[in-house]
Amino acid sequence: MTNLFASATDSPQPAAAPVAGPGRAVLQLTGIEKVYQTRTIETVALNHVNLTIHQGEFVSVMGPSGCGKSTLLSIMGLLDEPTSGTLELDGRPVQSYSDKELARLRNHKIGFVFQSYHLINDLSVLDNVELPLLYRAGVGGKERRQRAYAALEKVGLGARTGHFPSQLSGGQRQRVAIARALAGEPEIILADEPTGNLDSVMGEEIMDLLLTLNREQGTTIVMVTHDEQQALKTQRLIRFFDGSQVS
Amino acid sequence: MIRHLITLMWNRRRANGLLLAEIFLAFVVLFIVGSVGLYNYRNYRAPLGFGYENVWQINLDAGTQPRPEQYATLQTILRQLRATPGVVGVARTSSNTPFSFSTNNIYLETEQNGVKRTVEPVNIYYASPELSGVMGLELRAGRWFDRRDEAATRPSVVINEQLRDELFGPGGLAVGKRIGNKDREWQVVGVSGSYRAGGELSEPQPGMFVHVSSEDTSRAASRLLLAVKPGSGAELEKKLSADIRSAGPTWISNITTLPDQRQTQLKAGLVLPVLLGVVCLFLLINVGLGLFGVLWLNISRRRGEIGVRRAMGATAGGISGQVLGEILVITTFGLALGLLVAVQFPLLGVQNVRPDIYFTAMLLAAGTLYLLATVCALYPSRLAAGIQPAVALREE
Question: GO terms for molecular function, please (chain B) (predicted)?
Answer without folding.
Answer: transmembrane transporter activity
